[in-house]
Amino acid sequence: MLRPPETFATARLTARRPRPDDAAAVFAAYASDPEVTRYLSWKPYARVEPLADFLRDRAADWERANSPHYAWLLCLRGTDTPIGSIGLMPDGGKVMCGYVLAKNFWGRGMTTEALTPLVDWAIAQPDVFRVWAFCDTENPASARVMEKAGLAREALLRRWHVAPNLGPEPRDCILCARVR
Ligand SMILES: CC(C)(COP(=O)(O)OP(=O)(O)OC[C@H]1O[C@@H](n2cnc3c(N)ncnc32)[C@H](O)[C@@H]1OP(=O)(O)O)[C@@H](O)C(=O)NCCC(=O)NCCS
Question: How many domains are contained in the chain?
Answer without folding.
Answer: 1
